[in-house]
Structure formats: structure tokens, C-alpha cells
Queue: 2 jobs
Job 1
Amino acid sequence: AQKVTQAQTEISVVEKEDVTLDCVYETRDTTYYLFWYKQPPSGELVFLIRRNSFDEQNEISGRYSWNFQKSTSSFNFTITASQVVDSAVYFCALRGYSSASKIIFGSGTRLSIRP
Amino acid sequence: KAGVTQTPRYLIKTRGQQVTLSCSPISGHRSVSWYQQTPGQGLQFLFEYFSETQRNKGNFPGRFSGRQFSNSRSEMNVSTLELGDSALYLCASSKDRANTGELFFGEGSRLTVL
């Protein structure tokens, strides 16, 4: 079975603080893909990053960074110096090789950045 | 380039009715996937279409169906609506099969069943 767990339902921080969103996944596939998506109030999910199971390098994109650790089955997302515009629901997702095109989403973390 | 377009954005139906939702993918994208989002169940995969063929299906009853046209536009249909079908229905497109590339989502069709 494949599963994505985002234990943090809601996080609220003050602007300019750093914040980390946790994601833990389960899969029996040795080949799989992990994703993070952002859902602003308008509703559409915005793709942030894809990582395959063979690439454990951490990635940084501006204020965003991702920490992929196969040993703990985690794919955490950190926002540095948060801004009000970062307020949204963030989803971690998994696509296992055996599940073809079906992507499993976590339950999401609602992030609120207070000015 | 234009993003994924879903119509209608909002609609209200009553139990027992049927509904058809439309999705126009990004130009050049051939794969279209549908997801249902509810507060209780979160985001759940409905089905994926590629080259006018359903390639994968989630765990939904047969009341949920879809199709894809030769221009890659897709429709999904829900028959005999139930209160629990109230949800945001999201369509996503990708250039090829949705299994490796990122998905580009539309803003969704919010269905309310009374």
C-alpha cells in the first residue's frame, strides 16, 4: 500500500520566520516520485517540485528548500523568511512505479503567515 | 500559454441528477487526470485519460465516468448524484503520461449537491 502522511494539519507563523512542513511516505516500490504542490485560495494546485527515488540530493529554489531522506521515508519542505503570500495549503504527494499514473496525496498542511 | 481550463466553475445540483464537467488541457498536453477534493477524504484520484483511452481508475463507483476527445479535451460525468458527491473536482494535464511529469491543475469545478 502507498500512503503519504502530513501530520501537521495547520501551522501559523509570523512573517519572516522559517517554517518546515513535514511529509512521511510509505511505498513498497523501489522506484517512485515525490511531489510538493501548493494550493492557494483560488483552488488550483501549483506544482513546486518533483523528486525521484534515486536522487537524494537536497534542492534549494530561492526561499524554498527540500530535504529528501530515504532512510526515514521523509520529504520535508522548508520555507525560509516566510512571506504572507506563502499562505496556502501545501500537499505532499507520491507516485509509485507500480501504481502507473495514480498519484497519492497527503491530507495537506494549511500554512498561515501572519504579518 | 493558457493553463488548464475547467467549466463550469460552480454548479448546484439536486440528488438524483447528473452532471458533466469539462476540462481543456494545456495545448500540447495529451494526458488528463481527474481528482475529487473533499474536506473529509482529501484529494482522491478518479481517473486518467491518455490518447482518448482511460489508462487508470481510482476507487470510485461506476456512477463516475469520463471520456477524452481527439483534441485531448476531457469530460467527466457523475450520474445519480448523492449528497456526498459535493466536492471540488480538479482536472490536471501533463504532456505525457501523468506518471513522471508534473501535473498542471485547473482551478476546479465546485459541485454542490442539495
Job 2
Amino acid sequence: DAKTTQPTSMDCAEGRAANLPCNHSTISGNEYVYWYRQIHSQGPQYIIHGLKNNETNEMASLIITEDRKSSTLILPHATLRDTAVYYCIVRVLRSNYQLIWGAGTKLIIKP
Amino acid sequence: GAVVSQHPSRVICKSGTSVKIECRSLDFQATTMFWYRQFPKQSLMLMATSNEGSKATYEQGVEKDKFLINHASLTLSTLTVTSAHPEDSSFYICSAWAGKTTAANVLTFGAGSRLTVL
């Protein structure tokens, strides 16, 4: 019962910006949007998270629409090492703050 | 930053034996840890929530007698797959919240443990 929808896969040329969309139309007012990625056979790696303002860190930027029903993760200069499955997650309001994972987007960076 | 260590990274065992996987928070205390299971080309599936000093909370469909979880200290949780069978072969991943369990904090993951049951 993932609360987000993402494209199954995307390609991006090396050196270009990779823009990964995510829809979370049922998000509640106090739920954060998290982005993680998982490189093959490794544990997920945290990328960025936000509530309603756009966020930027050393890895990526997160753009959240004003109505908070969708967001976009931007990798500004994609490299081959950015090839991974990217997960957009909305924190479910449970007492122990679980994250429910959707299918994610397989991002393939091409040389 | 917060680090979660998981051991072993790979394990191969015979059918019917038990396997223990350890998850440690190296530089923070984790009152709650989570155990996930991931089959090839699928997303993470939450198995259980491990609470320090108390019984784990299992997700629907996860057999608590087969997947024993112990969270004896604030830095260690263990998952024991009992009487393992080939269908238990999977990628098992643990995670923990670094710091206070609030929405603004980050869930840190271990590197995962690949279990192969022959």
C-alpha cells in the first residue's frame, strides 16, 4: 500500500541532469517526502527529504509542488555511479515511523 | 554520520539449519530497528519492527516463530532465520532511525545480508 507512484524506469545521459518524478497525491499535511536510492545488492542510501520547501544538499535537489501532491528529485550532473533504483517515500503516520516502500524508478545513466 | 553495520554480508546454509544476522548501530543508540526482506527485482518489504527490551512487532504474513528477532541493547538487533528452507533465500536488510524518531530524521540502512539456502 505504497502512497507514491513513480515511473518504472528512466534513462539519462552522463553529465546531464536527471529529473525523477514522484506522485504522492494523498500525502498528509505533516508527512515528509523522503528519497533513497539502492545500488544493486546494497542497502538503501539516503539522498534527501523535505516537507514543503525545496531542498538541496551535496547529492541532489528536491522540488516539491505547492500543493505537495508531487515532487521531483534532481541529480544535477549524473554520473555512471548514479545508476540505481530510486525510491520516493512518504512517511506513514504510525507510532514507530515506518517507511513504506514502493517499486521505485530504475535510473540508468548512459555514457 | 550515522552508520548501521550488518553481518554477515553473505551466508550460505543447508536446508533445516538456522542462521543469525546481526544489525548494529555504530555511533548512535537505536531504540527501534526495522528488518526488511527483498527478493530479486522487487522493493523492500517490511518484516518486523524491533524494539529494544521488548518483543518485536511483525507485519502481517511474517511468521514470528520462523524469523526470531532479538533487540537486547540499544545498539544491537538480531534476526534468526530458523529451520531455513530454499524459499527463505533472500536479501535481508536492517535499518534504524539515527537520533530521535521524528519525521525529520533519517532512516539509516545496513548494507544487507544475502542468504542462500541450499
